[in-house]
Design goal:
The chain has eleven helices and 21 strands. The protein is α/β, with parallel strands linked by helices. The protein folds into two domains: 195 residues, Alanine racemase (TIM Barrel); 135 residues, Lyase, Ornithine Decarboxylase, Chain A, domain 1 (Beta Barrel), CATH 2.40.37.10. The longest helix has 15 residues. It is elongated and about 75 Å long. The structure holds pyridoxal-5'-phosphate.
Length: 387
Amino acid sequence: MTRTEQTNPAGGIPQGMAGGLLHIDLSALASNWRRLRDNAGGAEAAAVVKADAYGTGIDQAVPALARAGCRTFFVAHLSEAIRVRSAAPDATIYVLNGLFPGTSSAYVEHDVRPVLGSFEEIDEWAAFCRSQGRKHAAAIHVDTGMNRLGLTVAQGMTLKERGELKDFDTALLMSHFVSAEESGNPLNLRQVEAFGAVRETLPGVRASLANSSGIFLKEKPHFDLVRPGYALYGGNPLPDQDNPMSPVVGLEARIVQLRWVEEDDTVGYNARWLSLGRRRIATLSVGYADGYPRSASARGKSGEALLAGQVLVAGRPCPFAGNVSMDLITVDVTDIPENGIRRGDTVTMIGGSLTIDEVGRRAGTIGYEILTNLGRRYARAYAGKQA
Ligand SMILES: *Cc1c(COP(=O)(O)O)cnc(C)c1O
């Protein structure tokens, strides 16, 4: 049984008052996790729930994933890990952004594991464990191409010689793909090989390389544990193919006003959209302050095919008209029958053909950014939540 219930993390926004209604389907989230697990060649499937579970809500997403069988979670920050800990008391939790100086005791207090990305971090964790007389668990990150976070491959090859490794439990060796969503990119195989070489020097340590797209690579770099994020939330891990994942997030926006504009009228800030005839404009109660990117603005003339935002009105695409405002978006709804749309109706901003990938593309960004900016002032409705 599933039911839809209203929650209000931003302090209570009844659906009838909200400018935007966000729908989050927790059973789709759970089935996406199972699908990824089933594609991981027997490796353990973790879940990456950083950035408030990619905008879907740690407090709701983590229990749903734990019920589906997920035992290991990754976040970026210790503060996020503490939220995951209360949502999943028995889970294993890793913090990707590493060990900030002086935070070791907070990790241990909350039973959270740092992902150590430098010899300084390794030494600090080892010293803390020695001072406690306990070998606490941590992961070690080796950078195989991103040049962002982690030991170099050369440093990784010398890890086994470091005495500090005896002071703690190296529970996981990990690295991260640069462009796993580009299945033909030769960098993927180079990273798999470099990672495999470091791994061979540390027998018995579990290893993890694949993000969402990495799970589907022909190299099958599943190792012992996979770390999907985006695909869990419905993002397409295979940009050149049909999306194997189910949509998790939907967004509706309320129509505040409908108006007609005449030939040579402009719409919105800075008059960047020109009407070439009589057009009907719907004004929606969502804007960039809700996390909908201003880069989806439609600058040009009515009827032009612009790479800009769209909404669906009764399944029909209607293009944005003019600049996205802070709290409002204007849309050209001339093609919708006049009595087919009224003040107070909602239109679809994410859903159907407007997938998160498509919304990202139309805003000149990626679906990841759309998800992680999902607004705090939307009313949120979670479906598939178990009582
Ligand atoms: C964010 C992140 C992931 C998840 O990546 P997706 O592309 O969202 O699946 C996995 N590993 C690391 C290190 C990350 O930072």
